[in-house]
Design a protein that fits this description.
Blueprint: H1 2-25, E1 43-48, E2 54-56, E3 67-73, H2 77-90, E4 94-100, H3 103-112, E5 120-126, E6 137-138, E7 158-170, H4 171-177, E8 196-199, H5 205-217, H6 225-234, E9 238-241, H7 244-252, E10 258-262, H8 263-271, E11 277-280, E12 288-296, H9 302-312, H10 315-325, H11 354-375
Helix pairs in contact: 2-10, 5-6
Length: 376
């Protein structure tokens, strides 16, 4: 009888152990994201979150993402908070350290510091930059690449942001003057003399993007005499600042009637309660420029750097960012209604020749500066 009971106990233990191990053996282990090809499923069977549900396919096995990931970024604080919250949710065992500054300063720091511990650079890098930063970066194709509406042909940048331009208009002052501003042509009005503010293109990214857009939509061909003739009429009516923030802040404060700015910033301010201002999409047309992030060459924590690119490429991150900053995401599955942005099909977008812009940026800047100097 004792032998019989012992055999039964042994058999029960064997069956129990088999049952415990069976789940793992039938589920393939994650091979890691970064191949650039999304999984047919929207989940990654390699891991699960705290609630036990399966992770999205663009999230790596959390047990493989540890240590610290150092992020150099141009993102403002609310966007940083979104990133930290999502990163901590999926990768609790990997600390995230953020150092924020302009992309020029961050790039100089990386180039000049042999002991630089940066793993990724997020923000400030655009499709028109060409190979400006390639010397400090390494290529990578993010997990959600197939969902992206914009791609970096060189393979260095992971896009998460799309910038389109706008005019910010103080509607109260507009009404007082009896003018209606719906586009660039409406700015050429003596009633607006000294009441328009723009950012210098050689000092701000918003100013440079506005010049690109004017050259694209105000002429018969990009960068032709007709577009520069428009600029020659706009300049005498305008005040130039070296700060993008001045443009929208001073229009909101009532010091200027109209400013040339970014969609995302203006939309976010309006969502946050800015009154008597409107985000105007130019009736003549617009341009879109994808911006993003990249992995630093010889990144100290390469697995975490890749996981960061995968997260940035996801609609989940881009939607969360849009909810707090009205940033237009590059992922085609993003929900623009989260921040009240119009579909880009309604904006009259004109394609930009990024190679031309990269090759001729200095010449365009020199021409702008020379024309401005002649006026003053």
């Amino acid at each position: 009888m004792k032998k019989y009971v012992s055999l039964l106990l042994a058999l029960a233990m064997t069956l129990s152990l088999a049952a415990c191990g069976g789940g793992n053996s039938s589920t393939p282990a994650s091979s890691g994201s970064g191949s650039g090809t999304p999984s047919p499923s929207s989940t990654n069977p390699a891991g699960s979150d705290a609630a036990g549900s399966e992770l999205p396919y663009y999230i790596s096995d959390p047990s493989t993402i540890t240590g610290k990931v150092t992020v150099y970024t141009t993102m403002e604080e609310t966007q940083q908070e979104v990133l930290v919250d999502l990163w901590s949710k999926y990768y609790p065992d990997c600390e995230i350290e953020i150092q924020a500054d302009s992309v020029g300063t961050l790039a100089t720091r990386i180039r000049g510091d042999e002991q630089c511990d940066a793993d990724v650079v997020i923000g400030g890098m655009f499709a028109a930059d060409g190979d400006t930063y390639h010397d400090i970066l390494q290529p990578y194709t993010a997990a959600c690449d197939a969902e992206q509406l914009y791609h970096d042909e060189t393979g260095y940048y992971t896009f998460y942001d799309v910038q389109v331009m706008c005019l910010i208009v103080n509607t109260a002052l507009e009404a007082q003057l009896g003018v209606e501003i719906k586009g660039y042509n409406d700015l050429i009005n003596d009633a607006l003399n000294g009441k328009i503010i723009l950012a210098a293109p050689d000092a701000t990214s918003s100013g440079w993007r506005q010049v690109q857009t004017i050259l694209a939509v105000m002429g018969d061909e990009f960068d032709d005499d007709k577009s520069w003739d428009y600029i020659s009429k706009l300049m005498p009516l305008s005040f130039s600042t070296t700060s993008s923030k001045d443009v929208y802040n001073l229009v909101i404060n009532g010091e200027y009637v109209a400013g040339l700015s970014y969609e995302s910033t203006v939309a976010a301010l309006i969502n946050d309660g800015a009154s008597d201002v409107e985000c105007i999409y130019m009736s003549e047309g617009n341009t879109a420029m994808a911006g993003g992030a990249a992995i630093v060459k010889d990144a100290p924590n390469l697995p975490a750097a890749k996981a960061m690119m995968d997260l940035l490429s996801s609609a989940e991150f881009q939607d969360a960012r849009a909810a707090v900053s009205a940033g237009r995401g590059s992922n085609g599955q993003c929900d623009l209604t989260l921040c009240g942005l119009p579909d880009d099909s309604t904006l009259g977008l004109v394609d930009l020749d990024f190679d031309y812009l990269a090759a001729n940026k200095s010449a365009i800047m020199d021409k702008w500066n020379s024309m401005w100097a002649d006026l003053h």
